[in-house]
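Protein ElaB: structure, please.
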Amino acid sequence: MANQFEPQQTSLDDDLRMLSETLEEVLKSSGDKADEKYIEIKSRAEQALSDVQSRLSSATDSYCAKAKTVVRQADTYVHDKPWHGVGVGAAVGLVIGLLVRR
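Here you go.
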């Protein structure tokens, strides 16, 4: 069950990697290298990119760990009380059926 979250993690990592590579390419290819304002802006952009990458990495790990914990707890609950799980599933199915019917 925990493997359900890996594709989302990979997609987020891929998107962030693509954004990083694009930003690095733009920073390398644009502006007058001797311009003082360009150098300052490039420095700030590189620092911001580094900060965002580190924050997203830690946030993604944290969210995945929390989601895995919730999945384990739900799995344990359903194994301990299977009829409650069946009842909740039936209720959710009924509600979704009524909403789709409209």
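Notes: The helical segments are 6-29, 36-80, 82-101.
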